[in-house]
Amino acid sequence: MGTLPERRNIPPWVKVPEDLKDPEVFQVHTRLLEAMFGQDVCRIPYIEQVSKAMLELKALESPDFTEVVVYGSCIYKLRTKWMPQSMAEWHRQRQERGMLKLEEAMNALELSPWIK
């Protein structure tokens, strides 16, 4: 995914300092960031505007995960946290279904025991 963008501003709907005190924090597989937030995380401003929260992405020591920090009022934080977590779960289930289909296809290609 490359380097994470640095936060430069606080959206007008986030109340300083009260909304910045107790953020919701969760981790997302780095490979899902583009699917969730767009190429170069270009959808984050739109997600922030719709959800009335502020998102910040932080690189972790493990390149496999990225930390997502959500700032805002309690209800907006929870709703905003739910959206990417739901998207990540949807992608996980989709990948799982794809692996099952691949396994079925590979099993179908195996030769019958009487043909050797």
UniProtKB/TrEMBL annotation:
Domain of life: Eukaryota
Residue ranges of every copy of the KH-like RNA-binding domain listed in the record: 11-95
Cited InterPro entries: KH_dom_type_1_sf (IPR036612), MOEP19_KH-like (IPR031952)
Family of this protein: Belongs to the KHDC1 family.
Protein name: Developmental pluripotency-associated 5 protein
